[in-house]
Amino acid sequence: MGVSLTESAARHISRYIEKRGKGIGLRLGVRTTGCSGMAYKLEYADQPKPEDLSFESHGVTVFVDPKSLSYIDGTELDFVREGLNEGFKFNNPNVKSECGCGESFQV
């Protein structure tokens, strides 16, 4: 399955990489933290790591380490604006529960 982006997320990432002046895509992973156990981590990738798996969506490459993929396989990353707030939204079919603050999740 892999990881995919909506058009909105791909546009936002592409614009940011262009502003930044460097980068080849987005690195998406998970880390152990928070009240529910796992949290997403995002960073812009300047070069692939040897173990990275890569997925292309709407012209943007998303890099994922193999360990994280088991938690986020099938996830669609969206970029949404709600009122004055904007940010990434994770549509992860593996999530069984999320904490009240929305910062962490369980699979």
In brief:
This protein is of the alpha/beta class and 107 residues long. 20% of the residues lie in helices and 45% in strands.
Distance between the termini: 17 Å
User: Level of helix content?
Assistant: 10-25%
Number of extended strands: 9
Helix-strand topology string: EHEEEEHEEEE
Strand portion, in percent? 35-45%
Give an account of the 3D structure.
20% of the residues lie in helices and 45% in strands. The strands form three sheets. The protein has a four-stranded mixed β-sheet with strand order 3-2-5-4. The chain has a three-stranded mixed β-sheet with strand order 1-6-7. A two-stranded antiparallel ribbon has the order 8-9. The chain has helices at 7-20, 66-72, and strands at 4-5, 25-33, 37-45, 53-57, 60-64, 76-82, 85-91, 97-98, 105-106. The radius of gyration is 14 Å and the shape is globular. Strand 4 (53-57) and strand 5 form a beta hairpin. It has 107 residues and is α/β, with parallel strands linked by helices.
Topology:
Layout: E1 4-5, H1 7-20, E2 25-33, E3 37-45, E4 53-57, E5 60-64, H2 66-72, E6 76-82, E7 85-91, E8 97-98, E9 105-106
Parallel strand pairs: 1-6, 2-5
Antiparallel strand pairs: 2-3, 4-5, 6-7, 8-9
Fill in the keyword field for this structure.
alpha/beta; three-stranded mixed sheet; 9 strands; 45% strand
